[in-house]
Amino acid sequence: MKLRIDYTKKGSEEVIDRLSDYIEKWRIRKMRIQRNSAPVSREIRKRNTHRIDVPESAVSPVISKNRSEKSSDLIETSGTAGVRRKTNPVADPVRKVQPRRNPPENVLPPRASVAASARGHRTLPEKEKLDVKKVFSRIGISILTMLLAVVLLVISVDLVVLHGPSKAARDRFVLTVTETSAGKFLATWFLSDEVVQNIIKENAVIGSNSTTDTTLIKLPSDDETDPGNTNVKTDINSVQLIDIEGKTYKGKLLIVQNPKRVFIGTPVAYGNDKEGVTTIDMVRNANALYGINGGGFYDTGKGNGGVPTGRENSDGIVISKGNLMWGERKREYEIIGINKQGIMVLGKMTAQQALDSGIVEALNFGPYLVVNGEACEVGGFTEAGLNPRSAIGQRSDGAMLILTIDGRQPSSMGATYEDLIEIMMNYGAVNAANLDGGSSTYMAQNSESENDPKIITQCASLYGPRKMATSILVSRVDQINSQYEG
Fold first, then answer.
1. Domain co-membership, 383 together with 338
2. Cβ proximity of 291 and 240 under 8 Å
């Protein structure tokens, strides 16, 4: 940069003043850069460095008047030689300043100033430290919110299904929840008890009032020369496990060739002050090969299995090894029994009549599904609800059919009574009856060599295997109960 100089005394004084100003500005700028300790690019240094070229012949000798020490140190006169820089100027001591975390705007270097102005000198607020009470309160609020959402969803579904345009959907929902011990209240939230009972009656299984005809069952003889035996040789002691699958269900079916291997599993004793035993523990205690749940038990949502019952909490009966373990001899029950010959008997009779007819293993439940080869009729058009199911049946050759259906699972919603009837008829059942299904349903299988049973189907209970009053067990070949004839 070049200065325009007047060739007068006044002009020379102006030159000195302007030089002093430039030098002072340069010193201040340098101090600012040092304070911020920021790297300065070559362009900035070049822009902040000013070169002043003054011809020596253009300046007359002048005497500096009352100039500051800094100016007099940096500028000197030398006759007519003009103004020149001091050969060895003494640098002013510069105090080093530590850079601040948030330096003020007027101290920042050019690039830092632009960045600071862009973000408006905003700094992130420190995160609030949460104490234990706040953490638990927030967790509690989240849980309550989720529960409220679930309740609202259930109420909405209840209203839409029960009071919607579809009568079939309403009946299916009512039948499904009323067959559970813990979900019955869902049906009566928005429907009267009278309406619920009418729906159940309209869709009930219409069973036969007659007792099964035992002559329809032809048990194979152990004598190979018996003319009743067919040309197809069957292992009388074989047990076959089959996977069952339908549109809404998956399950397992046991085909036990020898019906005398099937018996009722029980706890040691019954009573209000007693507890039942889980099906898998009954299998273990009896060293049985297979087991499923049997009849009902008194249950208000989480029963202990100490009191046997029939359908809809009716009075129960249990006969094991020819002994009446629970029930009244003169009371009539809906019997599911096995007599001494290994033939399954279905029918309404008193406990004494059951014992007199030779029944050695029995419980009561229902409804009956197949009687004397005829499928029982399912009332209504909804085919009952979709739930986990258990059933037992017998073919004409005496083989027992023991069935469990998974339910309340993503891959298996459950089966209806119509589904059970279809399965039993397809596998040749002459007589068949429904057992206590729901969350009690599962099948346990024991090892051939060890007494270590495992559950091989899905258990729908939220609490795990439930304590039961009775179960249906399959004994090992060498442990057939002595109460059977032959």
1. yes
2. no
